[in-house]
Design brief:
With 126 residues, the chain is mostly beta strands. The chain has one helix spanning 102-106; strands at 2-7, 10-13, 18-26, 33-39, 46-51, 58-60, 68-73, 78-83, 92-99, 115-116, 120-125. The chain starts with a strand and ends with a strand.
Length: 126
């Protein structure tokens, strides 16, 4: 089992920045691929960014390319999402995920993804 706990969400003005953190515990975190998803009211949960287990493959949704950066610190068992130039349409609950298959995360195979955090709210005001 892997437990994931997100933090760092909050209220920010458009153009501002936030850094989300996802702390993992349990099984060897460095073996897992990780991703950040988001879900706004009335919308499906969608992948924002993904990073494979050794850090040499990344994926970003078109809507966040150039603004968001995913990273991981395996020594701290933590995944980060640096969000810059935030827009009101970035408002959502953000979830951290971990899975043995990078493709499951990138292809948004939600029911196949092994582990989820509880989510953290990000609100961007205009």
């Amino acid at each position: 089992q892997v437990q994931l706990v997100e933090s760092g969400g909050g209220l920010v003005q458009a153009g501002g920045s936030l850094r989300l953190s996802c702390a993992a515990s349990g099984r060897t975190f460095s073996n897992y691929n990780v991703g950040w998803f988001r879900q706004a009211p009335g919308n499906e949960r969608d992948v924002v960014a993904a990073l494979n287990w050794n850090g040499d493959s990344t994926y970003y949704a078109d809507s966040v390319k150039g603004r968001f950066t995913i990273s991981r610190d395996n020594a701290k068992s933590t995944v980060y999402l640096q969000m810059n130039n935030l827009k009101p349409e970035d408002t959502a609950v953000y979830y951290c995920a971990a899975d043995g298959r990078f493709s499951d995360i990138v292809r948004r195979l939600l029911t196949s993804i092994a582990y989820w955090g509880q989510g953290t709210q990000v609100t961007v005001s205009s």
